[in-house]
Amino acid sequence: MGKISGLKRVLILSVAVGSGHMRTAEALKQAAGVMYPSAEVRILDTFRYASPLLGKLVLGAYLEMLKKSPFLYGFLYNQAGRGRPLSGKGKAGFSHIINMAAAPRLIKYINNFQPEIIVCTHAFPLGIGSYFKKKGVFQGPLLAIVTDYDVHSFYIFPEVDYYIVGAEGLIPQCRAYGINPDRVYATGIPIHAQFSHRYDQAMLRQQLGLDLEPPVVLLTGGGLGMGSIDIVFKTLGASNLCQLLCVTGSNNALRVKLDNMAQGMSCRAKIFGFVDNIHELMAASDLMVGKAGGLACAEAMALGLPIFIVGSLPGQEVKNAEFITAAGAGVRIDTDNLGSLVGNYLQDMSRVQHLARMSALHGKPDAARDAVRLMAAVVNSPGIVKATK
């Protein structure tokens, strides 16, 4: 895009559900701080700031559904897809409720801060930003960051100026929604700069108290510690084919359970709760087993880490799993065959290495910087953006 002037004031609207959407927002802020040090970049946890009660109701119901009725969530997700019953009036009604509850405080915030651009890393605040543009509250560019490898109808609003998606293969999905491909950029899902580095795997293993051999498997259930981690932990721990790193996120009960299970295992295992060095744990590992969260997939591929997908939630995680397997960057497994399937790979590391190469091929470690460059171009020279895509 050539030399582009800097950014001054950027407002990123996100939602703290799980950890991925906020981590994407933080990755953008970190990249902008390096590239444009004088820029003021603010991140708002939209519901927590604008309407804590609504946030508690909406996000509480969402998390409860994921935990107790994941298949119901998957059904609703699919029904709200393009051309489905909930994609029209249902979406409009839901957006109206959120807009009415969140608008007053956010309008005041926007009027005080005067952002040049609003960037949304979740569909809910994107609907609010679209409402503001429609009503003339905000007249600058509105940018959507899609944090999964699927473009859902809840992200589609005519007021959105540009979309950032995780891969080139998602551009046709946007076109099917009537979005001009010139407004869609496949920079990748923005991730922290830590995932663009190359690490000394042997040194990391030594720092983590692991041996250089046998292979290392990372187990993760996302920020909420969901999925079949305990079953995977028990099965692989009994195989003696690998060493285990396990991240339980905020699920303290799971961490205690695994600590107890580890006492009777002969293989080396390290168990963590919520961590801030997941990039090092990934870089120390030969493969990762867990759910197909969008950001976790993007981070793993940036480091060339194969993903063995188990326990994914219906909805966007199923779509992410389909993307990963189609890319050859991972394998879908279930709790019935995980021991034999993962074991077969661990006993033939050439197969793991092939998956690793495919994972790295589809990784986009510079996604956050590329997204920030687009933001600056949109703010300063919108006419250049299409011409230099």
Roughly how many Å apart are the termini? Answer: 7 Å
The helicity comes to 40-55%
DSSP helical segment count: 17
How many separate domains make up the residues? 2
CATH class of the largest domain: Alpha Beta
Give structural notes.
Helices cover about 50% and strands about 15% of the residues. By secondary structure, it is an alpha/beta fold. The chain has 2 domains: about 10-190 and about 365-385, 3-Layer(aba) Sandwich (Rossmann fold); about 200-360, Rossmann fold (3-Layer(aba) Sandwich), CATH 3.40.50. The strands form 2 sheets. Strands 2-1-3-4-5-6 form a 6-stranded parallel beta sheet, with helices on both faces. Helix 3 (about 50-70) packs across helix 4 (about 70-80) and helix 5 (about 90-115) packs across helix 6 (about 125-135). The relative contact order is 0.14.
Summarize this entry quickly.
With 389 residues, this protein is of the alpha/beta class. 48% of the residues lie in helices and 13% in strands.
List the helices and strands and how they pair.
Layout: E1 9-14, H1 20-35, E2 40-45, H2 46-50, H3 52-68, H4 70-79, H5 89-113, E3 117-120, H6 123-135, E4 142-145, E5 162-164, H7 171-176, E6 184-185, H8 201-207, E7 216-220, H9 229-237, E8 243-247, H10 252-262, E9 269-272, H11 278-283, E10 287-290, H12 294-302, E11 307-309, H13 316-326, E12 330-332, H14 338-346, H15 349-362, H16 367-380, H17 382-387
Parallel strand pairs: 1-2, 1-3, 3-4, 4-5, 5-6, 7-8, 7-10, 8-9, 10-11, 11-12
Helix pairs in contact: 1-16, 3-4, 5-6, 9-10
